[in-house]
Write a structure and sequence with these properties.
Length: 828
């Protein structure tokens, strides 16, 4: 009979209603659980649990029964009628041994401190203006610190404590603990135990997953749940005997809550901010001007400068569609507003900002808006807004990030901000801003006779003033070309045309007999090309006639390279005979042999000399003020790329077979980190492209200046040098592979080359010996920038079919990844 009763109980439980989605989230937050922990315990994907809490989907058996059991146990621990409505935090004792930095191997724990954004420095668990994070019996940012230190975090006075492990740069540092004046006499609060905690070995955290959520509130409450009286006009409260912590208090970390918050609003109009490391903050602001005020005065958002002579990053607020409506903004822009890229003048929110003495940049209130007041006393007052529902996060760079839940979006943007920088707009804009942030144009001078310091030019930078380009470097429509006839088409002898490869040829009879076409793709090709590139700096170019070519001098050279014969070239210091007609020319993007004099960047001409041929330039525009301006930029983005790949399970220096195995499905292991990876790659490519930003807008006419020309970072010569190096690097590796194996590419598109092979693997193209070595100077499999990965494999039969349908000039490299050809390929 007992078996029948058990069956009846199981049947009733399987149909019992589950708590509402909001209650499910409340219970998880109340126990300090992350989505990853719940997903691991239930053996489902993280996105599945997120969908249950958002109400998009409902759990099904057998996971439904286990999920219901979890919710029932949590509801017994945290009943709704006694819930702390001011803030939901994990119980004392809920710690995260890994934290957001755990994937990088630092071994430090975090609970929403600045490390979640910057990766260095001490962490804090205090909410805005001293609001305490409840529920941690170890101090954030350290290991093994007892509960009293965690209890003292909210008081606002910093003292040196035990040393913490070396930071990300290997330098040892001290942890700073904020101690209350009466903390020495205060007893440690008794930890609230969890029920049946899962051992770490049974529920490992996904690489890069956020720490268990902590919650800082606008009105922190004592353990009993009764609210304390808030300070008028602020989102913080005082505690008996403890002064309210001010943002400018000595020792206070102004960026304790990281670089950004994702702001969301519920149906009850309650506004919540989601930050890095699982931070959750109640936002007390009732209007957009008060939200900006609260952000600067209390939220403790921002990021430290990336260079000692640079500027700290302004706080970023990401407003969801619900938050837009809460603050009087449209959830989406109308067609007219999208075309204009901004709210129309006269909108009520713009009036609110104006009455509160807040200003907007000339760009207005668009998907990326900057709200500021003029700096006072050297202190910036600026907040940046990102509105994903307005199209701020381009899906070409950010995939489906705009559709993520607020906490997930905070993780994506926070990881990007920590590894790259706080987004300043599109990934292209951020890539350009990163160059300046890492290599500022000015610095403080040495003290003068009066002991004062002044701003001066920083050697190695581009300076504060824009530098004019050479006529050959100017794009069509530039003011330098205003004297040309209206419909004049400039040729290669008038215009510098350094672009990436777009070349393809027909397969030979031998290649048609091979079964597969294998595509290999260079990792971060333009980033690798920027590394070590010597470019012009702050001085304008100098015109020279009949110059002697100097490979160490950046500039543009008018020279005839039509005599370079690829069938007889110098490879590895030996003259080699090759099938030159099977290789693209290294001097033109189309791969065709140049027909006469043309303008080239220094790396292109230097490669002709490397191949064993003499060059005799006719004239040149050269830059004697030179340096490796892009090196810090490359290193920052390289570390971001390699670190994110490591979190996805692809480490450096893996043997070829293990590397290919690790790459297989790596983006599915953590879809959110896959978004970060794509954004990093777009930052590299977009930042280089932004160096020659073209005119935009219907009101512009050829010959007129456009706003981008006023930037010191508008430098078409630097863009040309990087692209030239990328194309030459590609050709050098193809040449080395051809000389060693007799294999030639059948198509090349930018950083992707396609080869015919007997098997479907890159190992069927790239020869590796028993020691794991391949052709010197050729392609190598690996995750580092400049090395290659598998782009895709198709059959030669597929190639014949698509070329028969779309034409023989189809570039197979464009479609090797998916095999889908959606339109006629005209080579443009």
């Amino acid at each position: 009979m007992s078996e029948l009763f058990d069956a009846i109980d199981a049947l009733v439980a399987s149909r019992a209603p589950l708590p509402s989605p909001a209650e499910r989230r409340r219970l998880r937050h109340a126990h300090g659980l992350t989505l990853d922990e719940v997903a691991t315990a239930l053996r489902v994907r993280r996105a599945t649990v997120s969908g249950w809490e958002a109400g998009r989907t409902e759990p099904r058996p057998p996971e439904r029964d286990a999920y219901a059991r979890l919710l029932r146990q949590l509801a017994e621990l945290y009943p709704a009628d006694a819930a702390d409505t001011g803030g939901l935090a994990g119980p004392a004792g809920a710690t995260d041994a890994e934290g957001p930095e755990g994937a990088a191997g630092t071994g430090r724990a975090h609970a929403g401190g600045p490390e979640a954004a910057a990766g260095t420095g001490p962490t804090h668990a205090g909410g805005p203006k001293g609001a305490a994070y409840r529920g941690a019996d170890t101090a954030p940012g350290s290991s093994g610190v007892p509960a009293p230190a965690a209890t003292a975090v909210a008081a606002g006075r910093r003292t040196a404590s035990t040393p913490r492990p070396a930071d990300g740069h290997g330098a040892a540092a001290e942890s700073d603990t904020v101690v209350s004046p009466d903390s020495a006499a205060a007893p440690a609060p008794a930890p609230v135990p969890r029920t049946a905690p899962a051992p770490e070995s049974a529920a490992p955290r996904r690489p890069g997953a956020p720490a268990p959520a902590s919650r800082a509130t606008g009105v922190p409450r004592p353990a009993g749940g009764a609210p304390r009286s808030p300070v008028p006009g602020s989102g913080a409260a005082t505690r008996p005997g403890v002064k309210r912590e001010a943002r400018s208090a000595p020792g206070a970390d102004p960026y304790a809550h990281g670089p950004l918050l994702v702001i969301d609003a519920g149906e009850d109009r309650k506004v919540t901010g989601y930050g890095v490391g699982g931070l959750v903050v109640d936002v007390p602001a009732k209007s957009l001007p008060s939200l900006v005020e609260w952000t600067l005065a209390e939220a403790r958002l921002g990021a430290a400068r990336l260079h000692g002579s640079g500027k700290d990053a302004d706080p970023l607020l990401v407003l969801t569609g619900a938050a837009c409506r809460r603050y009087g903004l449209p959830a989406t822009l109308s067609q007219e507003e999208r075309l204009a890229g901004r709210l129309p003048d006269g909108h009520k929110v713009l009036g609110q900002l104006d009455r509160a003495d807040w200003r907007l940049t000339k760009r207005g209130f668009g998907p990326w808006a900057r709200i500021y007041r003029p700096a006072q006393g050297g202190r910036r007052q600026c907040v940046q807004l990102c509105l994903p529902s307005w199209g701020a996060l381009d899906p070409r760079s950010w995939r489906h990030a705009a559709e993520l839940e607020p906490a997930e979006l905070a993780r994506v943007l926070g990881t990007y901000a920590r590894r790259v920088m706080t987004p300043r707009g599109s990934t292209a804009v951020t890539g350009l801003e990163l160059m300046t942030a890492l290599n500022p144009p000015t610095r403080a001078s040495e003290p003068d006779a009066d002991g004062r310091r002044h701003k001066e030019h920083r050697p190695g930078s581009l300076g504060e003033d824009p530098v004019g380009c050479a006529p050959c470097e100017a794009p069509d429509g530039h003011p330098l070309l205003a004297g040309l006839p209206r419909f004049h088409q400039r040729g290669p002898d008038e215009m510098l045309f350094e672009e990436a490869y777009d070349w393809a040829r027909e397969l030979t009879d031998d290649e048609c007999m091979r079964r597969h076409l294998v595509g290999i793709d260079v990792n971060l090709a333009f980033g690798a090309a920027a590394n070590g590139a010597v470019v012009g700096l702050a001085a304008p170019p100098v015109h020279v006639t009949d110059p002697e070519f100097d490979p160490a001098l950046p500039g543009s050279w008018l020279v005839d390279l039509s005599h370079v014969d690829l069938s007889h070239v110098l490879v590895a210091r030996q003259w080699r005979r090759l099938a030159g007609e099977l290789l693209p020319s290294p001097f033109t993007p189309s791969g065709e042999r140049p027909a006469g004099p043309a303008w080239y960047a220094t790396p292109t001409v230097a490669y002709a000399v490397e191949l064993g041929y003499e060059v005799a330039p006719l004239e040149a525009w050269v830059r004697h003020d030179k340096g490796r301006f892009l090196d810090p930029w490359y290193k920052r983005l390289r570390d971001a790329y390699v670190g994110t790949m490591a979190d996805l399970g692809v480490a450096e220096k893996l043997p070829p077979e293990r590397f290919l195995s690790a790459m297989d499905g790596c983006k599915e292991r953590d879809p959110e980190l896959a978004i970060v990876l794509d954004a990093v790659k777009s930052t590299v490519k977009g930042g280089i492209g932004k160096l020659r930003e073209r005119a935009r807008g219907g009101g512009w006419k050829p010959g007129q200046a456009w706003p981008a020309l006023a930037r010191p970072t508008w430098r078409p010569d630097i863009r040309a040098a990087v692209i030239s190096r990328a194309r030459v690097n590609m050709h050098r590796k193809m040449l080395a592979l051809a000389a060693a194996t007799g294999r030639y590419p059948v198509a090349v598109l930018s950083d992707c080359a396609v080869y015919a092979a007997d098997g479907p693997s890159p190992l069927d193209v790239l020869p590796y010996d028993a020691d794991g070595k391949t052709v010197p100077g050729g392609f190598r499999l690996g995750v580092s920038p400049g090395m290659v990965k598998h782009e895709g494999t198709r059959t030669t039969l597929w190639a014949e079919e698509v070329r028969e349908k779309y034409g023989t000039n189809l570039n197979l490299a464009r479609y090797i990844k998916t095999g889908e050809v959606t339109a006629h390929d005209d080579g443009e």
